Amino acid sequence: NLELSIDDSQTDVESPLPLLPRSAWTSQVALLRAIFRAKKALERIEQEAGVLRG
What we know:
Elements: H1 2-14, H2 19-53
């Protein structure tokens, strides 16, 4: 019984492992998209401010 419970716990630990790189990749992509959107918004604001000043 003890050996079975050790085997069960190992499979529980091993099963989520393939999901970790995927979730990290998804988080990274979401972060990059947010940064890209923020950069575009700032560029647009700077352009509008430049047009208003000029």
